[in-house]
Amino acid sequence: MARPTVKAVLLSPQRPLGDKPLLVVGPSLGTSTLLWTQAGALLGDDIDVVAWDLPGHGISPAATETFTVNELADAVVELVDSIAPGARFHYAGVSLGGATGLQLGIKHGDRLRSLSVQCSGAKLGTPEGWLERAETVRTQGTPVMIQGSAQRWFAPGFMEHQPELSSRLLHSLRDADRFSYAFCCEALAAYDVRDELGSIRIPTQAIAGAQDGVAPPSLAAEIVEGITAGGGTASAATLEGVAHLAPFEAPGHVAGLMRSLINWTESTGAAK
Question: Number of structural domains, the chain?
Fold first, then answer.
């Protein structure tokens, strides 16, 4: 195994980093930074927003060997250090990006100011399911996942209301490197941090889509229960009419929840 390399784009206006809070946002499997474009724009006036791509997705180079979610978290810290060495940052991530966030909270809590885990869980799916998907995509390519992903990603009616936007995101899946996608599936197969949630001391919010069949609201509740049982601070929110990609489906609502968390930690010193 080797730590993968991830690349990022700036979603907020171009300006020197350091004067405003830094927010790093992470993707769901098969997506790109497009997932965060709308929410990032809503937050970008007073927060520096940097979005990263999974290996072999968007602008990140393809992975050449297997990696863990833990190593993805290490790669995010390495990314931040390349643009703002040693900086503490707010983090938000969706699905696999949210799992990466939990690993950041467990392993790199001293670097985080707040954590927003969206449409994710301390464990996702089953190892058998992920390994089967890895083999399917490795042999048949990512286009084989488009129909199923469209059904999982979006709540009913979203694609009809936002056909161009949803189509662009599905193109990110089509264009993703199939081997890197398979490595991501294998990382998820091995991922389970349920017993480590109590070590997270960063103010955390867990956001779930009411219609998310991949990471239902019960997984957000499990995150909150695990963190608070260890003495940490966490809260959950469920968004009606949303499935698996909350910042894409409901950017205004998600940006509002994230802004509240970031402002609270900045103003109270809870993140220091």
Answer: 1
